[in-house]
Amino acid sequence: MMAAMERVEVVLANNDRVTLRVRDMFLKIDADQTRTDVEVEAIAMAPVPTPEIRWRKQPVLAVAALPGRALGRVQGTSPAAWAAVGAAIRRLHDAPLPPWPGPSVDMLASRLADGCDWLVANEVLPAEVVTRNRRLAETALRPWTPVFIHGDLHDEHVFVDGDEVSGIIDWSEAAQGDALYDLASLTLQHPENLGDVVAGYGTDVDRDLIRAWWSLRSLSNVRWLVENGYGSPEDYPEVAVLRRA
Asked: I need a labelling partner for 17 at 20 to 30 A (CA). Which of 29, 48, 56, 195 fits?
């Protein structure tokens, strides 16, 4: 008799990339191999727990599964776990810079303008909500001292095992950037945990600028989420952030 086929789980599928899980391994297929190049190099450089790279054969990158669970899927995560994540982010931000730059202020401003125009034109949000958030978002677009950032540090990309960080995944957006962007990305859906993250981070931060990054990330990302099939905008955390700002 034929052996039972391996079960393949589709973890992520959009117009840019697909991620499959087979047993204890994730197979990542990206339309843009430069993003995969960044991920491989960033994993090698990052001074925090990261997944083991099993092999790479273009266009596929195979990485090992991490222990623990994604932060966004753990109910009642302790303040100590959030603080541990903050400490891990600080280690990353204190590390030597990667050799490649991140998006410039002008590029971010262009993305912001395009996102705002799309939200209003498609009547996703009232114009006054978009305008109010845009004014706030623009305050984040100021000079900053670049650090090594993850670049897409939302709660599905950080794994914890108890009160310890067991790993951080998906490094394709890693670059030089504003430290507050990572802190804002992590806490966008969890503003109540910002204090715990900052306590672990170990230095005071400008919380008004973190709120500005919440607005900027949300205004810039809704269109991509819609166009990649993530459901109704009314269900997005980003839209909730914009409504309450």
From this structure: 48
